Amino acid sequence: HAVWQLVLQHAKEDALFATNTSGIPINAIAQAFNEKDQERFFGLHFFNPPRIMKLVELIPTSHTKESIILDVKNFAQNVLGKGVIVVNDVPGFVANRVGTQTMNDIMYRAEQHKLSIVDVDALTGQAIGRPKTGTYALSDLVGLDIAVSVIKGVQQVPEETPYIHDVKIVNTLYEN
């Protein structure tokens, strides 16, 4: 919260405040702001690499002004050329929640069937119409620390727990 307090000291009255996080609840960060400043705060989650990935998740707080949500959405679509979805402040938002579950399930099944990382990446990349980055390469690009953090966040949602599995190789790589 100290960083946001410093930013607020130097920001203009009409400045907008956003975070690109995908793992920290937006409403938790918003607590650094007073209620008036919370009207100008939101999450704007770009996917990596942002120059290539089109999707952006816009995550308002319960205090974010509707006009700001619309302005940011229009800016991201019309100026940045992004596809914008407005999502709720839930662990992993929408795309990471779906993507993490998919990635986790693929790795879990690969482990159960003793498939190699190379084979899994070959099967889950361009062979099925996805980008050339397969499942394991994508988790490496995103960063195992980020992937594990998102998985742990999604595990906190009771209805998601049955779909998240411990994957030995991910745990081993993360711990080392």
From TrEMBL:
Protein family (similarity comment): Belongs to the 3-hydroxyacyl-CoA dehydrogenase family.
Protein name as it appears in the record: 3-hydroxyacyl-CoA dehydrogenase
Annotated ranges, domain 3-hydroxyacyl-CoA dehydrogenase C-terminal: 92-175
Gene Ontology biological-process annotations: fatty acid metabolic process
GO molecular function: NAD+ binding; oxidoreductase activity, acting on the CH-OH group of donors, NAD or NADP as acceptor
InterPro entries attached to this UniProt entry: 3-OHacyl-CoA_DH_NAD-bd, 3HC_DH_C, 6-PGluconate_DH-like_C_sf, NAD(P)-bd_dom_sf
Keyword terms: Oxidoreductase
Limits of the 3-hydroxyacyl-CoA dehydrogenase NAD binding domain: 2-90
Top-level taxon of origin: Bacteria
Organism listed in the record: Staphylococcus pseudintermedius
Xref: Pfam families: 3HCDH, 3HCDH_N
